[in-house]
Amino acid sequence: MIVQERKVYVTRLQPGAVLSRDVYNERGQLILPQGTEMTTSLIVRLKQMATIEVWVAEHMVGPSAPLPTESPVPTIITTQPKPSLMDCYSNLIGSVENLFLEARAERRINFEPTRRLLRELAEISSKESNFLHLIINLRTIDEYTFQHSIGVGLLSMQIGEWMGLGPLERQELLIGGTLHDIGKCQIDAAILQKPSRLTMEEYEIVKHHARYGYEILRNSGVDERVAVAAYEHHERNDGSGYPRGLQHDQISRIGRIVAVADVFNAMTSRRVYKDALSYYRVLDEVQNNAFGALDPAVVALFVRKMTSFFVGNQVVLNDGTDGIVVLVPNDRPTRPLVRTATGFVDLLQRSDLYIQEVRAI
Ligand SMILES: [Fe+2]
Questions:
Q1: Helices H / strands E in the chain, number of each
Q2: Do 299 and 284 meet the contact criterion of CB atoms below 8 Å apart?
Q3: Cα dist. 142→63, 92, 167, 199 in Å?
Q4: Which candidate, 153, 185, 183, 123, places its Cα nearest to that of 254?
Q5: Co-location of 131 and 275 in the same domain
Q6: Residue 31: which domain range?
Q7: Distance (Å) from CA 233 to ligand 1 centroid
Q8: For residue 80, what pLDDT band results from cuts at 50, 70 and 90?
Q9: Chain centroid to CA 268: how far?
Q10: pTM strictly above 0.70
Q11: What's the number of domains the chain is made of?
């Protein structure tokens, strides 16, 4: 039984100390329950999540504190998006599909109806606190191109918000992200939908979609700053991108942001729906910059923010253990600290274990 407690800076915490109170993260989720005996690994994790102080037991009756042998695993409730959000999203899918048809026929678009729907969706979705949750739940409709377009728009706008950009630039990101691939309407569908690998010639044809998109948007009176999102979303920092092989600051900010959103959304969409494990792997891969030289500052911010949504995920490890993700290292999002019914599993230390399944986000 705990008879006395004191507050301790995490920097001064020693292994063996026993928590006298529960520790919560900034989102109010339980990280470590009362009675947890601190280990070096747990202390490191607390520092990573910027916890400053914790309460520890000063005197215990008995040789050691009781470990949480049957620590309750909190229930994560997966709520569906509100109907109005889904209605708005479905309308938007139809509207974006019309834009592609219109652009194909006339090489210009009337963007106003879509702009209104986008604003509406942005407003509704801004009320969803867990952005990862939102993006996953919006992936219930199977028109890849259009849902990808909207997904990239929302992601780009969200990155802009995380970067502290103003409302005008966030609007531009939303629109530019949504229309980034509009130029694909000019590419032969047989090439775009080809299941096998493209030939060099076919790939060269596909590359034109960036310039086509820019031209369509400019023809339609869309602002230059928005149109460059289409032009530059395949440019890469190291000059390896297309169509112009721009580098670093030659690429507009909107181009660099939409590129990150495009890569992340495309990589996660290719997986089976709700294969949430892929979010861990994809962020790992995006972070390692394995898919082209994306802007490192945008990537770092994006990974840091997205991984914060992993906390609280209900997961199953490959040895069958159920658990809750409690801490996610920024540099290794696939190796979080997992709380199980019998204690903690630190995947940074346990290379034999990995997350096999994500049950709920
Ligand atoms: Fe593209």
A1: 13, 9
A2: no
A3: 59, 14, 31, 27
A4: 153
A5: yes
A6: 2-58
A7: 7
A8: very low
A9: 9
A10: yes
A11: 3
Kindly give the distance from the C-alpha atom of residue 298 to the centroid of ligand 1, in angstroms, as a whole number: 18
67 alpha carbon – ligand 1 mean position (Å): 52
Asked if residue 247 and residue 131 are part of one domain, the reply reads yes
Are 90 and 230 contained in the same domain?
yes
Distance (Å) from CA 254 to ligand 1 centroid: 14
302 and 326, same domain (yes or no): no
Dump the DSSP string for 315-332. Answer: EEETTS-EEEEEE--TT-
- Report which of 264, 353, 357 is spatially closest to residue 313, judged by C-alpha positions: 357
Distance 211 CA to ligand 1 centre (A): 10
Residue 96 DSSP symbol = H
With cut-offs at 50, 70 and 90, classify the pLDDT of residue 163. very high
Tell me how far the alpha carbon of residue 179 lies from the centroid of ligand 1, in angstroms: 10
What's the gap in Å between 209 CA and the centre of ligand 1? Answer: 7
Ligand 1 center to residue 242 CA distance, Å? 10
Domain check: are 250 and 324 in the same one? no
What is the distance in A from the centroid of ligand 1 to the CA of 20?
53
Residue, of 128 and 77, whose pLDDT is higher = 128
Q: What is the CATH number of the domain that holds 13?
A: 3.90.105.10
Alpha-helical segments (H) within the chain: 40-48, 83-106, 112-125, 131-137, 144-162, 167-178, 189-192, 200-207, 209-219, 224-232, 253-269, 277-287, 296-308
* 176 domain residue, yes or no: yes
Which single residue is written with the structure tokens 């979609």?
A: 209
What distance in angstroms lies between residue 78's CA and the mean position of ligand 1's atoms? 32
- Residue 94 has a CB neighbour count (10 Å cut-off) of 13
**Residue 177 belongs to domain with CATH number:** 1.10.3210.10
CA dihedral 79, 85, 91, 94 (to 10 degrees): -50
The CA 262 to ligand 1 mean position distance, Å, reads: 8
Shortest CA distance to 210 belongs to which of 255, 173, 277? 255
153 plus 97 within the same structural domain: yes
Residue where the block lists tokens 């949480």: 68
- Digit-coded pLDDT (tens) for 290-334: 556 899 899 989 888 888 888 888 888 989 999 999 988 877 887
